[in-house]
Design goal:
The chain is an all-alpha fold. 72% of the residues lie in helices and 1% in strands. The longest helix has 36 residues.
Length: 407
C-alpha cells in the first residue's frame, strides 16, 4: 500500500496516542496534590488547625481527586453521559466556591453575629466569656472556623450546622420553610409561563399591531416594577382600601392561611397577590423573549416554504416556528430559578409569607451566618441542577443539537 512522502507507516504494536488534555489534567492533579500537601503542612505547623480542620483538608483533597478522575473517565463515555458528569463536577466546584465566598463575606460584615446573644449575658465574667468563645470556636481565625464548618458539611449525610438563633438545625429550618416557598414559586412560575408564551407568540404573529403594541408597552412597564412597591400597592388596593370604604377585603394582607383554616381554597386566596407580584416581571420578560425568538424564526426560508406548500397557519406556527424558537425560551426558563428566588425574598417579606425568602432576611438581620450559608448552598445547588436540566432539554427541543463528538 502506498504511503505519503515524508510519513512513516504505523507499526502494528503502536500504542494509542494519549490526548494532550489528559496529560495536562494528570500534571495538574499531581501539582495540586503536592501544593495541597505542603499547604496543609504549613497550616498544621501554626498549631491553630484542630483535628476536624485537618479532616476537612483531607476530605477536600479526596473530593478533588475523585472529581478529576470522573472528569478524566468521562473521555471514554457517551456524549450525553460525558456532558452530564462534567457539568456535575463543575457544578460541585461552583457550589463550593459560592459557599466559601458567602461565608467569608458575611463574616467580614460588622454588626450582630450569630453568637452575640450568647456572649451578651448579664453578670458573665471575662473568664466565662473566654471559655464560651473557645467552646464555640470563635476565638480561632476565620479560615479555621471555615474548615471546621466544611468538615461537617462534607459528610454523609451533610450537616449544615446548628442555628442557636432558631434553636434547631439549619436543615430542619430549611425543610420547614422550603415548602411554602416551593408552592409560591411553583405557582408563579406556571402562571407566568402559561401567560407569557402564548402572549409572546400572538405578538410575534401579528407584529406592530395593537396587540403587539400593548404587549410591548406592558413588558417595559412590568420589567420596571419594583417588587416591594408593587406588592405594597396591591395590598393597599385590594386589602386596606376596601376596609376603609366599609367593605370586606378582596384579598388578605398576607400570610398563608386565615386563622386555623388549612384548606386549599384558603391557600389559593392568599396566593393571589404574591403570585401576581412575582409573575408580572416574569410574564413581561418571557413575552419579550418569546416574541423576539418567534420573529427570528418566522423570517426563515423554511417557514415561507411551509406556507407555500399550503400548510395551515396554525400548523406552520406551532409545528415549525414555535418548536424552533424554544431554545432561547428554555435557556431563559433555566436562568429564572435564581431570579424568582431573589424576587421571593422581598415578596415573602412584604406579604409575611413564611418561606425561605423571609427566613433569609430574618437570619441575615440577626447575623445567623450558618443558616444563611446553608440557604445559599441549597439555592446554588438548585440553580446548578436547573441549568443542567435546561441544557439536557435542548436535545428534546431540537434533535440537531448534540453534546459533541467523543475525543
Amino acid at each position: 500500500m502506498a504511503t505519503l512522502v515524508g510519513t512513516r507507516r504505523p507499526s502494528a504494536g503502536a500504542l494509542p496516542r494519549i490526548p494532550t488534555r489528559l496529560l495536562i489534567i494528570i500534571a495538574a492533579v499531581v501539582a495540586a496534590n503536592l501544593l495541597w500537601f505542603f499547604g496543609a503542612n504549613a497550616l498544621d505547623s501554626t498549631g491553630q488547625v484542630p483535628d476536624n480542620g485537618r479532616d476537612a483538608l483531607h476530605k477536600l483533597l479526596l473530593l478533588a481527586d475523585v472529581g478529576t478522575v470522573m472528569f478524566m473517565a468521562a473521555e471514554w463515555m457517551g456524549p450525553r453521559l460525558r456532558y452530564f458528569i462534567r457539568r456535575l463536577v463543575l457544578g460541585a466546584i461552583t457550589v463550593l466556591l459560592i459557599v466559601t465566598l458567602v461565608y467569608f463575606v458575611l463574616n467580614a460584615i460588622p454588626g450582630e453575629k450569630w453568637y452575640s446573644h450568647l456572649l451578651n449575658v448579664r453578670g458573665a465574667t471575662p473568664e466565662h466569656i473566654a471559655n464560651l468563645r473557645h467552646v464555640l470556636g470563635i476565638d480561632r481565625p476565620v479560615y479555621v472556623q471555615f474548615l471546621t464548618y466544611l468538615n461537617q458539611l462534607i459528610a454523609i449525610p451533610p450537616d449544615l450546622g446548628y442555628s442557636t438563633a432558631l434553636s434547631q438545625t439549619v436543615w430542619d429550618a430549611i425543610i420547614t420553610h422550603i415548602g411554602p416557598t416551593a408552592i409560591l414559586l411553583g405557582t408563579a412560575y406556571v402562571v407566568q409561563m402559561l401567560i407569557a408564551i402564548p402572549v409572546g407568540v400572538i405578538s410575534a404573529v401579528r407584529p406592530y399591531s395593537k396587540i403587539d403594541t400593548f404587549v410591548t408597552s406592558f413588558s417595559f412597564f412590568g420589567i420596571s416594577l419594583p417588587n416591594y412597591w408593587f406588592g405594597s400597592m396591591l395590598i393597599y388596593v385590594f386589602a386596606i382600601l376596601p376596609i376603609q370604604l366599609g367593605h370586606s377585603a378582596i384579598f388578605p394582607v398576607g400570610g398563608q392561611h386565615t386563622g386555623e383554616q388549612t384548606g386549599i381554597g384558603d391557600l389559593a386566596w392568599h396566593l393571589v397577590l404574591p403570585v401576581i407580584v412575582l409573575a408580572v416581571q416574569g410574564i413581561a420578560q418571557d413575552a419579550r423573549y418569546t416574541r423576539s425568538a418567534m420573529l427570528d424564526v418566522l423570517g426563515q426560508d423554511y417557514i415561507r416554504t411551509a406556507r407555500a406548500k399550503g400548510l395551515s397557519g396554525w400548523a406552520v406556527i406551532m409545528r415549525h416556528a414555535f418548536r424552533n424558537s424554544l431554545l432561547p425560551i428554555i435557556t431563559l426558563a433555566g436562568l429564572e430559578i435564581p431570579q424568582l428566588f431573589a424576587g421571593a425574598i422581598i415578596t415573602e417579606f412584604v406579604f409575611n409569607w413564611h418561606g425561605m425568602g423571609q427566613l433569609t432576611v430574618n437570619q441575615a438581620e440577626s447575623g445567623d451566618l450558618i443558616t444563611v450559608v446553608g440557604i445559599m448552598m441549597v439555592l446554588a445547588s438548585l440553580v446548578v441542577i436547573g441549568n443542567i436540566v435546561a441544557d439536557l432539554a435542548y436535545t428534546l427541543a431540537d434533535p440537531r443539537i448534540t453534546f459533541g463528538k467523543r475525543a
